[in-house]
Amino acid sequence: MSKPSGVGPSTNGSVDPFAWWRAAGTYAVDAAQRAVLYADIERQVGDQYRTQREARMPNVLHFPAEFVMSGLDLPRPVNYGLVRIQASEDRPADPAKRPFVVIDPRAGHGPGIGGFKPHSEIGAALEAGHPCYFVGFLPDPVPGQTVEDVMRAEAAFMRRVAELHPESEGKPAVIGNCQAGWQILMTAAVWPELFGPIIVAGAPLSYWAGDNPMRYSGGLLGGSWMTALASDLGNGRFDGAHLVQNFEQLDPANTLWSKQYKVYANVDTEAERYIGFEKYWGGYVFLNDVEMQYIVDNLFIGNRLSTAQLLTSDGVRIDLRNIRSPILVFCSYGDNITPPAQALGWITDLYASDDDVRAHDQTIIFSTHDSIGHLGIFVSGTVGSKQHRKFASAIEQINLLPAGIYRASVDDATKQEQKLLHDPYLLSIRASGIDEVRDIVKPDPESDRRFDAAARVSDINLALYRSIWQPWVCALSTSQSAHWLQTLHPMRLQFEAWSSQHPLACLIRSSAEYIRGHRQPVDEANPWWQMQQRYSAALDRALDDFRDRRDHIYALWFDMLYGSPLMQALAGHAYGESAAVRQHPGSTPEHLALMVGRQRQIESSVDQGGVLEATLRGLLNVLSRRPAVDERYYHLAAQLLEQQAPGRWSLAELRAAIREQTLVMRQCGSAAVEAIPGLLKNTPADTIRKAGEAITQMAAIDKEPGAEEDAVKHALQQVQALFEQAALAQQPRIQAPLELAPAPVQTPAAPQRAAVAARRKPAAPRGKKGVR
């Protein structure tokens, strides 16, 4: 450890007795200066809060935008709006690419977090050349606005975006953050024809899963009657500051100390970042009472979305299995608001097996981060320049994936890979399955029974509140009382209490300006500075320990209360009952009949197709031997298509063919591969050989010695032989003179015997084992 200037032995070898005190004086000057500068930063935050509060459409978007459509003009008006993000002149949007629509969460904060920085979700879409749109909202909801009204508005926005881009081959891709994630999936479940690929980031969809301490709050508070009370005290509006306060209580160390200390300790460099973040964190918005009550009753406590128990006002079931677009779920193990179990639990809630996923023709991709926090999923520049950048640039590759469950990862690319991709990162996608998702979610039937009991108690308490107390609360609550409760909320007071309107603000401001010109920062080797750092670290650990003990106590209380025989009996569960509380939604007879007909159709199509179908079968037969494929395969395939068959097939046709041939290979197995020569019977020989060469080039990517590569080599040899057999069959034959090859004499019965022998010949067995 380096020593501070003036501390330690003197030049003649003696110890300086005043070094410690000189270090203390230097530290005291620095600490006093930092205190004044920190106070001035907080003053700027207070001024910023007041400016945002008075703005009609407050947001934190970094990018310029132009207005497109207002939700206030819809038949069922809402406080949402659609804007188009203006691309820069040096990187204009490509009108042929599918547009992106980024939707921000309305969970207490204002809009703009999806485009908060240049390296963000919006920035990634613009960098990839996609037209980009943003869906935001006003601070105040339209009176009577419901969750379903917002869903209808989002569907109207998607129709409008599609109308503005008729030249785009694909439907709009959508990114939904947090609350917007589950809401956009609800919209896509009702209007699946409007959506392209959907990316949900940090979105909770299965609320009883995992070990997140927030899931215990509803039960320990007696259910959703507290939500109704808060809305009634707000005169029909729920204050989003309550939600933000709940978020902050999850991490008391950050809320009470480390967030502010980081600014104080690094006051010369942290001001811009801190002020910008507080602009978002302090922008509180409101929800209608019916909106918030619907969310708490049906999602947070009832957990009805992931098992298709919700209905719209006109009786349409909100079933996530109806979504036909690929769904990419991005979550993080460092997220204490939406851990991976809650982001992925809907998959195990809806589906019993991988065959069940494929039977509903659904493509699900999930990607996990090891450490980033909840807001970091949307805000972090590292995530924005890596994960979101790759998701946007590879959106067409994602769209081509056949039905099934996959896992995606983003890794550093090698120099050779960077030359092909022109990107420092590589997106890899491998086949996954329901078992891997189940290992992450860890479904617990016993835990589900306790949460089911909490949901029953919540319904009872809410009915009691509405019958007894709500009339009195509503009679005493006025717009003025609601205004004062909102103004005096602790989350707002921290901004209101200190701003330029404070009597001492002028003194702090002038002192800060002087200090910036005469700054005397302390050396990091100063012993007093090091004591400060150690004290901060100790306080962080103490608060973290308090949080862990508190959360453990909450979990114990919840399990003891709702796991008791009395509560279980009140919820309708007998003691020792082992049946699952939440059954899989199952399939309708119509769907099962459709699947039977679809299987027959697939079996009958094994001998149907052309060069595209034959090439896809060859590729699937070879590449299925590898555990994962990355975007290099997609880029090479795109180059080969552009060189050999430019414009012959659209992306929609390619996607349909890939999904169809994957089903054929999975169901018919080796019979589908052996049928390749028959598919090529009307294709020129040179075209067949070019297709075979393309398969060979694709197989040459990522060759590594091992058993898997031996299987790839064997499958490739088989496919090459089939393609060469088909090519030879198409070459013109040289016919010999008739006198040198007399036709054999055949009796009239010979053709009949030949036909009978052909019918008696056993058919080649069709394998049931297909490719992954």
UniProtKB/TrEMBL annotation:
The organism's place on the tree of life at top rank: Bacteria
Pfam family, one: DUF3141
Biased composition (Basic residues): 758-772
Renumbered residue ranges of the record's region Disordered: 744-772
InterPro entries: AB_hydrolase_fold (IPR029058), DUF3141 (IPR024501), PHA/PHB_synthase (IPR051321)
Record field: compositional bias (Low complexity): 744-757
Name under which the protein is recorded: 3-hydroxyalkanoate synthetase
The species this protein was found in: Comamonas testosteroni (Pseudomonas testosteroni)
Source organism phylogeny: Bacteria, Pseudomonadati, Pseudomonadota, Betaproteobacteria, Burkholderiales
